């Protein structure tokens, strides 16, 4: 009974401090970072809104985690994190500004080679992503208000945009809380409340994005899903935007010292039990 435990502890002790693997994903050198921060970069595709009370559809692929684009737990490229999202109830809309009062991002893990999102149109991409892992998300993010600045306290995301000639560009920012449904270990890991909002509350994730209409999915163009995107006359729901997003947050990682104390305590408990039996 004792030998297998000691062997297991040896395995734990020999693991590198930087090997932080959660939910099939290796967060790399995070374990050696005193701040225990994480940073993801992602592609982004988003639909157009042109007024208040509208929703935007969003999806993309998480390209790197802490700078590593081969973040599979086994070190291969045969996995991926993809997401779909809805940004809901646009408000305070103008030709250069918009806010959303709620948002949900569902992140999905797949242990197969990453999907090329330019091989099919956007509605098909969303359906494919939402089918990964039997439709069970890796983690879910929900919008967090009190962004600060000019944003309404109820806003969880805001964006600014500019039409210059045929180029429609913009940037966005928002706050998110980690929630379910999702993998319990991932939720626990990312639910660190490490980002301050404008009134002293705590969120888990800060998002920033930039996007434009210069590069769009060719299958969306062929299918007529981008009509008007090149001159700002698109109808709500057109797939006008492509770009990138950054997600930053903190994590909850067990301290190595605490793991050692737990192991010593467990060994002592077993030894005590054995001596009592004797």
Can you walk through the features of this model?
The protein is of the alpha+beta class and 278 residues long. The protein has one domain (36-68, 76-263). It has helices spanning 2-14, 122-131, 184-190, 218-222, 256-277; strands at 21-22, 25-26, 37-46, 56-65, 80-91, 97-110, 139-144, 157-164, 167-179, 195-196, 202-203, 205-212, 241-250. Strands 3, 4, 5, 6, 7, 8, 9, 12 and 13 form a 9-stranded antiparallel beta sheet that branches. Strands 1-2 form a two-stranded antiparallel sheet. A hairpin with a 2-residue loop joins strand 8 and strand 9. Helix 1 packs antiparallel against helix 5 (256-277). It is globular and about 50 Å long.
Taking the sheet with the most strands, its summary is: 9 strands, antiparallel
In quaternary terms, these chains amount to: single chain
The H/E string reads HEEEEEEHEEEHEEEHEH
Count every beta strand, where a strand is a DSSP E run of 2 or more residues. Answer: 13
Cα shape? globular
Provide mean pLDDT, rounded: 85
Instruction: Supply Rg.
Output: 22 Å
Structural class: alpha+beta
The first-to-last residue Cα distance is: 15 Å
Compute the number of structural domains.
1
Uncertain runs: 1-17, 256-278
Q: Count of helical segments? A: 5
The helical percent reads 10-25%
Percentage of residues in DSSP E strands: 35-45%
Task: List descriptors.
single chain, 278 residues, alpha+beta, 5 helices, globular, disordered C terminus
Put the structure in a nutshell.
This protein has helices at 2-14, 122-131, 184-190, 218-222, 256-277, and strands at residues 21-22, 25-26, 37-46, 56-65, 80-91, 97-110, 139-144, 157-164, 167-179, 195-196, 202-203, 205-212, 241-250. With 278 residues, the chain is of the alpha+beta class.
């Amino acid at each position: 009974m004792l030998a297998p435990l000691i062997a297991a502890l040896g395995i734990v002790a020999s693991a590198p401090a930087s090997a932080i693997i959660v939910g099939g994903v290796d967060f790399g050198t995070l374990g050696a970072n005193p701040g225990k921060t994480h940073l993801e970069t992602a592609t982004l595709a988003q639909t157009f809104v042109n007024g208040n009370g509208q929703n935007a559809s969003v999806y993309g692929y998480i390209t790197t985690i802490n700078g590593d684009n081969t973040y599979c737990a086994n070190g291969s490229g045969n996995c991926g994190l993809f997401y779909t999202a809805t940004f809901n109830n646009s408000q305070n809309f103008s030709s250069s500004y918009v806010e959303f009062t709620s948002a949900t991002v569902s992140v999905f893990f797949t242990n197969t080679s990453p999907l090329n999102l330019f091989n099919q149109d956007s509605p098909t991409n969303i359906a494919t992503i939402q089918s990964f892992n039997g439709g069970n998300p890796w983690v879910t993010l929900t919008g967090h208000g009190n962004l600060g600045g000019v944003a309404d306290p109820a806003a969880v995301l805001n964006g600014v945009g500019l039409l210059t000639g045929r180029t429609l560009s913009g940037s966005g920012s928002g706050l998110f809380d980690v929630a379910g449904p999702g993998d319990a270990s991932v939720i626990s890991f990312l639910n660190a409340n490490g980002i301050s909002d404008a009134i002293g509350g705590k969120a888990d994730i800060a998002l920033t994005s930039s996007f434009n209409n210069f590069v769009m999915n060719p299958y969306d163009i062929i299918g007529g899903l981008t009509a008007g995107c090149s001159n700002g006359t698109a109808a709500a729901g057109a797939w006008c935007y492509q770009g990138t997003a950054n997600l930053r947050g903190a994590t909850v990682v067990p301290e190595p010292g605490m793991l050692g104390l737990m192991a010593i305590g467990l060994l002592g408990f077993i030894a005590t039990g054995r001596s009592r039996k004797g």
